[in-house]
Amino acid sequence: MIEASAGPRSAVRAAAQRQRILCAAQKCFVDRGFHAASMATIAQTADMSPGLIYRYFRGKSEIILAIIEQQLEVARERIGELHATSDLAGALAGSYGKSADCNSEHISPPLFLELSAQATRDPQIAAASRASDAAVRAAFVQVLTRSQAEGGYGLSKAEAAGRALMLMCLFEGLKVREAREPQIDRRMLRAALEQVLAAIFQPPRQPS
Amino acid sequence: MIEASAGPRSAVRAAAQRQRILCAAQKCFVDRGFHAASMATIAQTADMSPGLIYRYFRGKSEIILAIIEQQLEVARERIGELHATSDLAGALAGSYGKSADCNSEHISPPLFLELSAQATRDPQIAAASRASDAAVRAAFVQVLTRSQAEGGYGLSKAEAAGRALMLMCLFEGLKVREAREPQIDRRMLRAALEQVLAAIFQPPRQPS
DNA sequence: CTCTTAAGAATGAACGATCATTCTCTTTTT
DNA sequence: AAAAAGAGAATGATCGTTCATTCTTAAGAG
Fold first, then answer.
1. How wide is the angle at C-alpha B192 spanned by C-alphas B150 and B156, nearest 5°?
2. Rounded to an integer, what distance in angstroms lies between the CA atom of residue A157 and that of residue A178?
3. Strand D within 7 A of B5 CB
4. Which nucleotide is nearest to A47 (CA to C1')?
5. pTM of the entire structure?
6. How far is A13 from chain B (nearest CA, A)?
7. Are A48 and B50 in contact (CB under 8 A)?
8. Chain B touched by A172 (CB under 8 Å)
9. Which of A11, A13, B86, B123 could pair with A3 in a Cys bridge, judged by C-beta atoms 3.0 to 4.6 Å apart?
10. According to the model, what pLDDT value does residue B97 have?
């Protein structure tokens, strides 16, 4: 790679530069969208010349892929929090509408939506999305199937799969809503979320 | 306008041409995204010359706006079906993954997602989205607040507002999921949907 | 410590491609 | 024949990418 023949000093700097570019690109993608954000604008946001970007990335599409993989890592990290959070509805309602900069743990709604749309067109993005979704869903299923004594909800495997799917739809729907309705009443959102989440986490009703 | 000085004959043709352009543009936007779809490609899809499009639309952004308003009309029409549909979960699970052409009653997931992302950037799109959302939400609230004798669910106004919000999140989340996971197990989706929908439509539990 | 020097880092102008839009000309309709 | 509809090449702008060049850095020689 670039830093193969150089010392560790330049390797650190190269990584920092890469991160600076990714941060600027993410901001530009949020502000203007994937295709409308130009390399010139990204370079200006990162406070460097356009040509320099190509020392650290092969091109624009590689930047997009790098951002996706970065978000995938963030998603994996956030899975751990899931097990510890007791007030899930409150956390979701509280973070609603918060601006997500590049080192935030929450992905920006427009970025997430555009990324999901691109997943229907670009096979690489589709594969990355599937990987991320599978990890999140597995974590949901684990919590739902684990016995109540272990802090889980003791659902059957089939039940848990369905509930996990609905949880993902709900979270993703919140992202859509965040984009379309940024100034929502948080209190109402939180109350409504609590009810639906309670229903999803409840044991299945027996067929009469 | 264009057909102001002409007879009704040309007005009919003009409307048909407009519709042909909108249909082609919608297809191109789904396939490539808003910015990546070129006017040349749209013209080719509509089987006409690029210049001809400008006889019927002022430019590209006006085409986008027209598609949005068209989808808004479709949404309003679909609200009527809501009151009549008994098997909502089955209908949703059944239409999942079906390709949506331009005269379909279902908006294509990538188009919806890209549109929602653009709503965070373009004030006109944001306004149109808000109008559509308000109509849909009002219809949900109406069904939820109407007394059970009238086919409703007899919820209070505050309760209904929250439930309607969750319904919208769920539907929009399904759109996201449709984009990210086109080959889902429909049977599981339907079963899970039925449970969550039942919970959302249920009367509120009394505080013990 | 200073000078030399070579390589990496960074610049910004230049290039080819592409895009939205316009315009001139031709075809069709009435 | 007049007017509307349509075609398609031309235009100016913009974009991603490249490249010749300059600046910076740091290490080795004296």
1. 30
2. 31
3. yes
4. C10
5. 0.93
6. 34
7. no
8. yes
9. A11
10. 86
